Amino acid sequence: MSTPTKDIYILGIESSCDDTSAAVIKNGKILSNVIARQDIHAKYGGVVPELASRAHQQHIIPTVSVALEQAGISKHDLSGIAFTRGPGLMGALLVGTSFAKSLAMALDIPLIEVNHMQGHVLAHFIEKEGEDKVNPSFPFLCLTVSGGHTQLVKVSDYFDMEVMGETMDDAAGEAFDKMAKILGFPYPGGPLIDRYAKEGDKTAFTFSHPQTKEYTYSFSGLKTQFMNFIRNNEQKNAQFVEQHKADICASIQDIIIKVLFAKLKKLAEAEGIKDIAIAGGVSANSQLRQELFDLGVKKGWRTFIPNFEYCTDNAGMIAITGYHKYLRGEFVGQDITPMARLKI
User: Fold this and answer.
1) Which percentage of the chain shows pLDDT scores above 90?
2) Average pLDDT in the 160-180 region?
3) What is the distance between the alpha carbons of residues 306 and 321, in angstroms, rounded to a whole number?
4) Quick one: pLDDT at residue 46?
5) Which of 136, 146, 238, 249 has its CA at 20 to 30 Å from residue 306's CA atom?
6) Which residues contact 173 (CB under 8 A, 6 or more apart)?
7) Residue whose C-alpha is closest to residue 305's, from 64, 315, 295
8) Which domains does the chain have, with CATH numbers?
9) 62, pLDDT greater than 50
10) Do 50 and 91 meet the contact criterion of CB atoms below 8 Å apart?
């Protein structure tokens, strides 16, 4: 008679930017995913690194406690602790890394470092108990779009990922937020552009498509073009933005999404891959999600869009990545340090 396999519980900790998050996964199935937001940055129009670090210190213990409570387990049930090593803000990463190292040492369980960007990609493999979910098949392409990154990634296995193209300057999410700031929206402004765009005409205003090589993106020129467009029109009409808010948002959102998908379509055709996914904070954008679905129908792709709670930074994606690393025995020692710049 075989001995029953012991359940594997992985605690994931995410602290790369301004969200403190903790999640628990049991045998690959998510039990909890708790996120503590940092509203303090809104008054400054962007994330202030020092304030983010202090807020992480305040939030991390209660956030982990709630995650364990919601999962219905004790810290002594944990099999391993996964944490975001990078990329991200160094001070913020230090808080999560230090906490994970201390707890792993106290419990004498394995420590697992996770690349934040790999976590976004592997968020597609998060499942709930009893859920009938279809996951991408290898190889698949993932367009990862966030405030800090814009990448086209070829995913051949859980940890065999190749960045096929990325932005040379601003990330798409950063462009959304900067354009929102030009419009006078509070931080984070990207979701507000999405909200107003639903009521606007995306053909109302025209912006030129950035010209870049192969699968490389660039959004800095588009941002400058938008800034000049607003300034020139406000010189003629001080109420221009207020009077045309919805159409402006719809038009600029449309060109950003067109830029993103132009490269994705080109890469998918070149690689002959028909499993296509999106990930990262901007994958919560309603037009991006809808257009990926529509493209999938048109091109015969299988498309994969994460649930909203797994789009923005969250520990669920860190925990699922840590789970697959645990199965491979990929652990790190107490000498591990965070890295603000960490490539896939």
Assistant:
1) 88
2) 95
3) 15
4) 76
5) 249
6) 145, 146, 147, 148, 150, 190, 280, 281, 282
7) 295
8) 9-126+312-328 (3.30.420.40), 140-305 (3.30.420.40)
9) yes
10) yes
Q: What is the pLDDT of residue 3?
A: 42
Residues 6+ apart with CB under 8 A from 98: none
Q: What is the pLDDT of residue 63?
A: 98
Cross-strand bridge partners of residue 10: 25, 80
How much is the pTM? 0.94
Q: Smallest Cα–Cα separation from 168: which of 132, 119, 215, 124?
A: 215
Report which residue type is found at 107. Answer: L
Helix (H) or strand (E) holding 293: helix 286-299
Enter the tokens of residue 100: 């994970």
Tell me which residue of 289, 13, 298, 343 sits closest to 148, measured CA to CA.
Answer: 343
DSSP secondary structure letters along 85-150: EESS-HHHHHHHHHHHHHHHHHHT--EEEEEHHHHHHHGGG-B-TT---PPPPSSEEEEEE-SS-E
Following DSSP, what letter does each residue of 150-215 receive, concatenated? Answer: EEEEEEEETTEEEEEEEBSS--HHHHHHHHHHHTTPPSS-HHHHHHHHTTS-TTSS--PPP--STT
Separation between Cα atoms, residue 174 and residue 134, nearest integer Å? 31
The pLDDT of residue 245 is above 80:
yes
Pick from 52, 84, 51, 78: nearest CA to 65: 78
- Amino acid at position 344, single letter: I
